[in-house]
Amino acid sequence: MSALQTQNPGRKIFSSRLATIVVWTLTVLWTIPTLGLFVSSFRSGKDIYETGWWTALIKPDFTLANYQKVLFGGGAESLGDGILPYFVNSIVITLPAVIFPITIATMAAYCLAWVKFRGSDFLFFTIFALQIVPLQMSLVPLLQLFTGGAHFQGITLIPKLGIAGEFAGIWLPHTMFALPLAIYLMHNFIASIPRDLMEAAFVDGANHFKVFRQIVVPLSIPAIAALAIFQFLWVWNDLLVALTFASSTEEIAPINAKLASLVGQYGSSWESLTAGAFITILIPLIVFFSLQRYFVRGLLAGSVK
Amino acid sequence: MFKSKKGALAIGAVAVSLVATMLTTVSASAAVNCDPYSGYKKMKGKTVTVFTSILEPELTTMKTAMKDFVACTGIKVKIEGSNQFEALLPVRVKGGNAPDLAFLPQPGLLVKMVATGKVVAPPAGTVANVNKYWSKSWKDLGTVKGKFYAAPLGSNMKSLVWYSPKQFKAAGYTVPKTWDEMTTLADKMAADGKIAFCGGLGSGGATGWPATDWVEQIVLREYGAKVYNDWVSHKVKFSDPKIKAAMQKVAGWMQNPKWVGNVKGIATTTFQDAGKGIPTGKCMMLQQASFYGNILGAEGATISSTGDAFAFYLPATNSKVSVPVVGGGEFTTAFAKRPEVQQVQNYLSSATFATSRVQLDHWVSANSGVPLAAYKDPIDRLAAEYLSNSKSTFGFDASDLMPAAVGAGAEWKEFTAWFGEGKSIDDVTKAIDAAWPAS
Amino acid sequence: MGAFLTDSLGKLSQVLVAIAIFSIVLLAIFGIAGRAKGKYQNKIAQIIFFGPAAFLLLVGLVVPAIQTIIFSFKDPDSVNFVGFANYKWMLIDPNIKTVMLNTILWILVVPLITTGIGLLLAVMLDRLKRESIPKSLIFMPMAISFVGASIIWKFVYDYAKDGYPQTGLLSNIVSLFGGTPQNWMLVKPLNTFLLMIIFIWVQTGFAMVILSAAIKAVPSDIVEASALDGASGWKLFKNITFPMVRGTFIVVLATMVVGALKLFDIVRTMTGGNFGTNVLANEMYSQVFVQFDQGKGSALAVALFISVSPILIYNIIHLRRERAQR
Fold it and tell me: N or C: which end of chain A has fewer CB within 10 A?
């Protein structure tokens, strides 16, 4: 306890007992629905249909058959049948679709927060407002741009990109759609970097590019890590963008497209769906656990001091 | 029922084609028999992309059916299936990323696609096939403003009632042949403490469509093709006494608490879950299309006339309307004019393709070149019998023909409220008529 | 297998090349532009830092937004202008009235609860020794794809009719306390709140993570100093911690409002927008992608644009005030 005291002095907002009770109550509440899915994924289809999942906790009757069917069942409706190419696609789609928007957003957020210019506030609020534009409305115009370019009165403004159906054709829309929220969130963090710290650097003769690389980015690592996780989850779980700008074939489609096929033409077989859903959660969870230490610890507080 | 001259001819054709089939399967193991494809040019290295709402496992079956064609012509056919097909196709077409071919499940969508100006008229070979193998009413469904665009592909038959032969046998019930027999049977089931009819409207964003099917069944059964078609074109309004009376009849059937139990529960039960009680006798009958056997089959039920589940023809209600059949289907639509695309179009509209497809499973074609005996699945054969019966009064799924604002909008929504919230028929019909587009 | 390996290597090398080009270009520009001196320095920095984002936003969102506004004055196929017909429809149609009321309910209830619970958790987690387990479990719903989430909640809200066994968790809890299971998705207006719970369940993790990072960034010496002055508990939170994270709180709240406005998949899968649960974004989706009416869909999208303006104005006021304080 004393170690905690010195590490975290004076943070006695709530008694730690009350905090423990409240946090764990909420945690249990939040976990129960998912637990239902988890337990159900080990039950037979007949059991799922006839009794609530909690009965299995009292009278355990578990089976691995669902996972076996989904993973190794063979046939087009099983994940075992060629899931690897889709898995590779998901990685290929996700990495740039996380790195590009976060880099560009961090730069833009820095510019709006620290490189003051006329209209920068207006631009900031415009970007905030752009979050509301439903991406469904951007699909057709963007696709037209990729397949035909942009022309104004015979002058080609943007040449035909020809990236529809390519990975680049998925990265670009993801980058565009991620920017408003990413800039908005990054702006919040970057703007709160203490003014003295920044001014000291400028007085020392550093220019914007140096300050950005040597002060802003290192200080923003927790925010960048948090944002990277969110962006990763959105891209990983996305199906609409991938299916619009590419296709659901194994050359390019993400793993989600393969999972959607588990539902199948007439599908409502809960037992396969429960197991399939659980398999999909695994990878995002692993990523979350491995990245979370970057933002769980208060890096920003530590370095500013 | 099928003792017409046409039937006899068909049986002759069956014998021939069966021999041919056996030859194909035998030779396929060694080398592909390319004789049926001698009319097609070899186009090695060419690729044709197809986009469809057909999903696994049917997608693989589709590819299997086309295997020999692909091997003999060298054309690579890339088929992509998506459950977001209806939303994605317009986006891709308008965005300039259209597939070469798409299988449109609704004529209404075809009208929209033609309006984009991107649809390419089929080649002469396809037109000849359609003229030869399909009835005029099917060809008309692929026609927009007098111009023929899309050849029919598969079909499904919606005038079926699913039941469990095992449960019927155990309880001593017999399959009803007339509407009155069906209602008497339902009363008997109710007296035995059973739920006579299962039902479910739930289908995510498309919730409500099974109810549109039920109303279509009764409108066609009560009034025949003329009123049905006028209803589709809104010459007969939803608030017309005739349509209201038909809805009243549906209410007396699928909203009869004595037969269906909890009426409101129908609105929240998914259509897939609705029939799950059939094999175990939790509910006894379900009006659903021919494809429903696949859902029951996926749950482990055996589909046969003595098994866990099977279907009978939904009886007629009016003796003046001869064999009313409501059905649906897909239409092959082209967005490219390349020779290899046209060759695939010709193939898909041929009897060769349709026959090789129905031999596999889960497929019905209204292509008259397909011998009934070729069908592997007994339900598919039953469905095909009704679709090809010259005495049938055929009505294509009305909600698929009506403007999308109604057929995929107001009608789904209002019928769901009719079941789930007890909205009155007067209010329901008024709201649907109000949603009908002005032009 | 060999083909799979070569294919995969090809794809993965595409990624490496793309990221490499991106980084090299960026570093090169930074290097060259960093040498610029004098009065152009700021201008160059603006263009380089903000240019890429501005271009991508313009092409990806601004142009489509303008196009949407134009389409809202056109017919379903975006061919002929129809004046204000689509807006008139929006004002007259009784279904849209329900849609609007529900949407307002969503943005009033959901963001506050989500951000509130997120803040509570963030503050309390700060007190715990082992915070990573509860944090991960509460964040977990965010990692679940929507297909997964809809199955999870089916197990909670399911209602079985006519003597089928009740397998839904909610129905069983209600029975346990002596109540009667209901067909939950049909009970108005409870059904809308039940759908909101799903959204809260998914998004609280987001609020918690962001707010937790902000709380950890509050310099310890400030809190320490006030604690020495005798402040504790609620007072410490109200006077010290909350003011320090207010900015982030508003950012999260605004993000949640936008999220609630754009929400459609929960409503779509659970009720299909029936039984009085429809919301603006779902109606827009139906109009554009199911009923193929680009005009009405665009008008609904414009209504979405407009409904974000109160929170936008609030943001502007807040930022102005914050600037004044600095």
Answer: N
